[in-house]
Amino acid sequence: MSPSVPLQEMIRAIRSARTQCEERGVIQRECAAIRAQFRQTDNGGRSHNLAKLLYVHMLGYPAHFGQMECVRMIASPRYSEKRVGYLGAMMLLDEKQDASLLITNSIKNDLSHSNQYVQSLALCTLACMGSAEMCRDLAPEIDRLLRSSNSYIKKKAALCAVHIVRKVHDLGELFVPSARSLLSEKNHGVLHGAVVLITELCERSPETLERFRKTVPDLVQIMKGLVISGYSPDHDVAGVSDPFLQVRILRLLRILGRNNEAASDAMNDLLAQVATNTDSTKTVGNAVLYETVLTVLDIKSESGLRVLAVNILGRFLLNNDRNIRYIAMTSLQKIVSTDHNAVQRHRGTIVDCLKDQDASVKRRALELSLALVSASNIRSMMKELLIFLSSCPPELRAQAASGIFNAAERYAPSKRWHIDTILHVLTTAGGDVRDETVPNLIQLITNTSELHCYTVHKLYRALFTDISQQPLVQVACWCIGEYGDLLLKGECQETEAVQVTEDDVLDALEIVLQSHMSTPTTRGFALTATMKLSTRITDNVDRIRSIVSIYGSCIDVELQQRAVEYNALFKKYDHMRAAVLERMPVIQKNSLGQTNGELSEEPMKESQPGKVKQEETALPPQPAGQAQVVDLLDLLGGSQEPLQPGSSVGGSASTHLTAAPTSAGGDLLDLLGGFEPTPLAPAPTVTVYEKNGVTLTLSCEQQSESGLTVTLTASNSTDSDISGFTLQAAVPKSVQLQMRAPSRDSLPAHGGAKLTQLVVLNNPNKVNLKMRIRVSYTCQGSVVQDMVQVDSFPGL
C-alpha cells in the first residue's frame, strides 16, 4: 500500500483483510508511512494523514504518536486543518496528557476568532477534554461569549460553561448573571443550554439555588409557550413541541420547587396543564408526562395534583411498552409510603403485572405488590401472592417468600391464618426460605396453644405428602415430638381428625431419618422428635430405644452425639427422662415491633435442647437429695467438683438444675466432663461503614493461629426498605477467604432487622491483614454501590 493512499482505500483494505494478522499488517504499514510523513517539514497532506490515524485509533490500535501533530494542526490558520486537529485532540488527548496544556493558548486565540465556526471548534474541544487548569484560564473567555449576540456561539458557550462548572465548582458564580440573561432568548438551542447550565449551578450551590428560584415565573412562561404553541416544523417531534427543552425545564422546576412552598405554588397550574394536554399515545408525549409526574411528586404540590400524577403512572401500567411499565412501577414504589391510598387504586393493574413475561417487570411488580399489602386487603393480596409464588421463577422465590412472611407477621387477621399461610409457603417454596423461618414458625406455634392440635394434624399430613421441603419437614418433626400425644388422640375441632397409631408416627419419623433428601439438621429434628415421643406413647418405647441406638454409631458427629446422650437417658437416667423431655415452655420475644425473621438471641438459646443458661437471680440451695440431678450433667462421669446454685436448664428440659460457673457440667451435651468452660468476653465491634442511613459493623473472633472469623452486621436507619443488599470482600492473595451465606438480602426501614454474614479467613503466612468490602443495594429504585477498606481488625 502506498503512503498516499486515500482514507477510503485504507478502510477498504482493512475491511477486506481475511485474518486479524493480515489486518494488523495493513495497519502497521500505513502507520509507518504516516510517521514518515509527520517527520517531513513540508507536508501538504497533514489533515489527510491525521484523519487516517484517527480511524486507526477508532479500531483500537495505538495512535499516540499523532498527539503533537494535533497540536500543530490546531495552530494552523487553515480551517480544514483546524477542524481535523481539534477532532484529533478530542480523541487522542485528555486532561492527563501533558500535550493538552500546549493547546490552551491556541484555544484562547480561537475563542476570539472572527469566524464563528472556528470559535465553535474551540468551544467543543474545551467542553470535551478541558482540564481544571484550562477551565480556570479560559473561564472569562467563555463568560464573554455567553454575552455575544450570536445565538450559535451562545448555545455552544453555555454547554462549555456546564463542563467548567463540573470541573471547577468555584467558577459557578462567574456564570450566574450570564445564565440568568439567557432565559430571555427566543432561540431554543440557547434556551436548552441555559436551562442545563442553571440546573448544574443549582445542584452545586444552595445559595445559587435560592437566587434562581426567582426565575420560576420565567420558566413557567417559557413552558406554557411550548405547551400551547402551534405546529412548528423546526421543533415538532411527533406532535410535541420541542420535547427535549420541555423535559429539561421540568427537571429544573423540580429542583427549584423542592422543599419550597412559594416556588411549588407558582408551578402547580403549569404542571396540571402539561399533565392534561400532553398526548400520551406517543413515546415522546410519555417522556414529557413522566418528567411531569416526577416533578409533581418531588415538590410540595397539591393533593389533587399528586392524585393526577399517580393516575398517569397507572395509565403507564397499561402501556404495551415494557419499559414504560417498568418506570411506572419504579416511580410508584418510591411514593407508595406517602400516597398509599392513591396507589391502592391501581392495585389490580399492578397485580396483573406479576404475570408479565419480562423478569425485571415481574420483580418490580412483586416489590410493589408487597408494599401495597395492608390490614384491609391482606387476604386478597396474599391469595394473589401465593398464586404467584407457585409459578414464579426460581430467582424470585426467596424474595417472594420473605415478603409474604413479613406481611403475614405484620397484618395477619388471625393466628390460624398466619400459620396456614406460612405452611403454604413452606409447601410451595420450602427450599428457598431463609434459615430463620423454622425457629420463627416454631415460636409462633408454641405461643398459640389453642391451635396445637390443628397444627400437628396439618403438619403430619404435609409430611406424608412431600418430604423434599426440608424446612417444612423440620417443623413437622418438631411438632410431632412436642404434641405427638394430641396427634394420637385423633380429636381436633379445627380440622378433620385423622386416626393415627403410634406405629404410623414412628414410621413417618423413620422415613425422614432414612431419606436421602434429609439434611443432617433435619435428621437431628427427627431423632429428637423420636426421643420425645418416648414420654408421650406407651407401647413402642422399645422401638424408640432401638431407633436411637442405631444412630449411636452414625457417621455424622452431631447426630451420633445426640444418640449417645439419649441412650444414656434410657439406660442410666431413665427416671429423669420424663422431666428432661417435657414440652417446651412458651418462647417470648425480647422486644416489641419485630417482624418475621427476627427472633431475639435469648429465645433462640432456649430452643436448643440441652443448653444451660446462667440466670441473673440465684436459685435457692438444692437439697442433698438432688445429687441424681447433678449426675445428669455428667453422664459418663469425670466431674468431681461440687455444683453451686445459679443455673437452669433451658430447651426441652424445664427441671431446674444446678451447676457451678466453672464446673465440668456447664453443658448438658458435654458428655466426657472435665472440661472447664471459659467465660467468653464479647468480641469488640467497630463501625466500618456509615452512609445514607446504612451502617456496617465488624467484629472478629480468632479461631486458631491462622484462622479468623469475621462477622459483618448491616442495619438500615432510613425510612425506606432496602432490597438486594450484598457484601463482597477482597483480601491479599496469600489469605484464603470464604464468605458464608448472609442471613437475609433485604434491610427493613428503621432498623427493623439486621443482616449478618460470616467471613472465614485463613492467614497461614501471617501477612498484614487488610480487607476491602463492596456494599451494594437498591433503595427506592436506585442502585447504590460503595467501597470501604478495613486496615485493622478489632481484638487482634
UniProtKB/TrEMBL annotation:
Q: Which InterPro entries does the entry mention?
A: Adaptor_Complx_Large_Subunit (IPR050840), AP1_complex_gsu (IPR017107), ARM-like (IPR011989), ARM-type_fold (IPR016024), Clathrin/coatomer_adapt-like_N (IPR002553), Clathrin_a/b/g-adaptin_app_Ig (IPR008152), Clathrin_app_Ig-like_sf (IPR013041), GAE_dom (IPR008153)
Domain (GAE) spans 681-794
Report membrane topology: Peripheral membrane protein
Q: Name one GO cellular component term.
A: AP-1 adaptor complex
**PROSITE patterns registered for this protein in UniProt:** GAE
- Map out region (Disordered) in residue numbers: 591-624
Alphabetical list of Gene3D superfamilies matching this protein: 2.60.40.1230, Leucine-rich Repeat Variant
Q: Which key words tag this protein in UniProt?
A: Cytoplasmic vesicle, Golgi apparatus, Membrane, Protein transport, Transport
Where mainly found? membrane
Q: Does the keyword Transcription regulation apply?
A: no
Its subcellular locations are: Cytoplasmic vesicle membrane; Endomembrane system; Golgi apparatus
Example GO BP: axis elongation
Entry's family note: Belongs to the adaptor complexes large subunit family.
Query: Which PANTHER family does the UniProt entry name for this protein?
Result: ADAPTIN, ALPHA/GAMMA/EPSILON
Q: What is this protein called?
A: AP-1 complex subunit gamma
